[in-house]
Write a structure and sequence with these properties.
mainly alpha, GDT1 family protein, about 180 residues, about 80% helix, transmembrane, 8 helices, transmembrane helix, membrane
Length: about 180
């Protein structure tokens, strides 16, 4: 149960102001409300979150305990770098109405975002990667739905400061885990 809660909170919190959330907010503002759009983006976010948790568990099963823990530290370090990286994305000038194209673009952005790296790490670190996959799916879907609901108002929030604070917390966690593995 802890894997589910950790992954859910991590996927939601680390998606604040992320590239994927801003993209969906911009599309919602430009294209207007669309049941097809919200269904597509929630399904894609749930799928990538579940994939990250499942892949973390599968990967950890192939490694020794110390190697898996070091890999968790590396995934957290990558998440911290992605969180700290400035997001200079601009709203699309001519957004597509193709739900398939939007889904593919969203999935590609989410495969390398901080939230999925952390869900991957949780799936690798905790005993039940299935619960991490479920938590990642629910948290990712909730975060992308929040971006859809807020629309253009999302750009008004101070997400840069929040993301830098989260990056510092994740970085410290990665260092602590990495040193605990090296000193053990």
């Amino acid at each position: 149960m802890s894997a589910l809660l950790f992954a859910l909170v991590a996927a939601f919190a680390l998606s604040i102001g992320a590239r994927d959330q801003l993209l969906i907010a911009d599309l919602r503002a430009r294209l207007g409300p669309s049941p097809g759009l919200i269904a597509t983006v929630v399904a894609v976010a749930a799928a990538t979150g579940a994939l990250a948790g499942w892949a973390g568990g599968r990967f950890a099963a192939l490694l020794s305990v110390n190697t898996a823990q070091m890999f968790v530290a590396l995934a957290l370090l990558l998440a911290a770098v992605e969180l700290a990286w400035p997001n200079r994305g601009k709203p699309p000038a001519e957004p597509t109405r193709s739900l398939f194209a939007i889904g593919v673009a969203l999935a590609l952005r989410q495969l390398t975002d901080a939230a999925r790296f952390v869900v991957f790490a949780i799936g690798a670190a905790l005993a039940f990667p299935q619960m991490a996959a479920l938590g990642g799916a629910l948290g990712g879907a909730a975060a992308i739905a929040t971006g859809y609901v807020l629309g253009e108002r999302l750009r008004l929030l101070p997400h840069r400061a929040v993301r830098l604070g989260l990056a510092a917390i994740i970085f410290i966690g990665a260092i602590i885990i990495g040193f605990s593995v090296r000193l053990a």
